[in-house]
Amino acid sequence: MNTIKDRLKFINHFASYVNKKLFDEYHSTLIESIEAYKSFNLIYIHFKNKWTCEISNCNISIKLYPIHCEYEIKNYEIITHYLAKNQTISEQYKNDNPEIFKILTYIIRNREHVYKTMSEAINLYVYTNYYNNIPKAKTFLLCNHITKIFPHGIDKIITHKILFFFFFLFSFFFHNKIKKNIKIKN
Q1: Does the chain have fewer CB atoms within 10 Å around its N or its C terminus?
Q2: pLDDT tens per residue, range 49-100
């Protein structure tokens, strides 16, 4: 990962992996990326509508300059913070974006699962060669049906298996036919 393009590709793949592990297809389309810091008990969510959300122990802060919405977490429910400067804007945003608040409620209820998934993903992507081997695995397992090109060496393996199968069938039937001819002659 020497170039910026490679690094961005790595980050996008990491983000899509985490989104798939945490959310269903519909909700993962709303999220651009997610960061979790268990030691600080913070989760940052970057939505595709350019809003950034910070979840701490008891507060949620949603920012898109110059708008700043603040919420409290009480019994896994999201309530507009009573000291928020923009209470009406915060309440209006909450009412206008119920799917975003469903995601936030899910994350609040499953905070430990989020931390665990993030640590597993970081371990998988940073400390193993998982990401580096993905293209090799795809090349090996998938044949390109558009250009009709098989990965190098796979075509020979497939033809050998097909020839072996036909040879086996041919020899089996031929052997049975010879046995029947010998029995008929005797």
Answers
A1: C
A2: 888 899 988 888 888 777 788 888 888 888 887 776 778 888 888 888 888 8
Segment 167-186 mean pLDDT: 66
Structure tokens at 59: 């507060």
Report pTM: 0.64
User: Domain residues for 165?
Assistant: 143-186
Residue reference for tokens 């905070």: 111
Residue reference for tokens 């009709």: 148
Q: Determine if the peptide bond prior to 66 is cis (ω within 30°).
A: yes
Q: Are residues 124 and 155 in the same domain?
A: no
Q: Is residue 42 part of a domain?
A: yes
Q: Is 100 exposed, middle or buried (0-12, 13-18, 19+ CB in 10 A)?
A: buried
